[in-house]
Amino acid sequence: MIETFDNSMLGQFKDCPRKFHWRYVRHLIPLYEKNFVTGFGSALHDAMAEWYSTKDSKKMDKAFVDSWLPHEGQDETGKRSMLRGLTITRQYRETFTNEPFDIISPEYVETGFTMELGNHLICGKIDAIVEWKLLTRGIVTLEHKFSNSKGYLVCEPNAQLDTYIWAASKIMGKPVIGAYLNQVYHTAKDVNKNEFVRELTYRTEDKINEWEKDTLFYIGLIDRCEREEIWPKNTKHCGAYHRACEYTRLCKITDKVEREEIIPLLYRVEQWNPFPNAREGGEE
Fold first, then answer.
1. What angle is formed at CA 143 by the lines to CA 282 and CA 54, rounded to 5 degrees?
2. Model confidence, pTM
């Protein structure tokens, strides 16, 4: 039985239990997956972590370069490149010279956690835990998001933000009033045109308690799927996000022998390690 979960796993199960099975039970990854997509967001995350830990612009840029370099030149659209990333880090520093929060300590930047919820473990990594100082004072989590498509990101309800608020309150031993969502959109072909959008969202203790109940409910469903070896398909998500799901080929095949024969031709096995990959959510 699966004992440890992160937000990516739970979110995937809610979207489609069958896809959850392929990725987190069978550990299948498409052979030709475009790693530069998530790589760009990860590189910018590393840059932000360095910035809020040291406030050193050279170290911030170097963190991006070191992380992104293996992917440079892979994105033919030009929306993810060395020049674009360094433009974003420079513009970010110039835009936010005064922050509405204080960094409590570098210890609380890129803060990993593993905590019990019922008989299972919830783990993840919070981009930062900070002290909010504008109007309402209190502790909030800081979460960075990077995307080349501008959708409508709902801050509440939002299970990922709820998870991090819940975890931060346990780490700090005191209430956490909400989360500050820091969004960077690199949608235009012009590398100089990047948009920064921020939003503070509050949470009450009752809302976090509701998140706990919802999460335990979904974990219970996952346990049941494992016991009964039944992973229902949610066909609504076969073509979600303007593309075909990477596992549709497997879901079309009913013959188990034929399906097992085709898997090595299309996928590799890669164990999901939820702790370091807890920057889930969205495209990047």
1. 130
2. 0.90
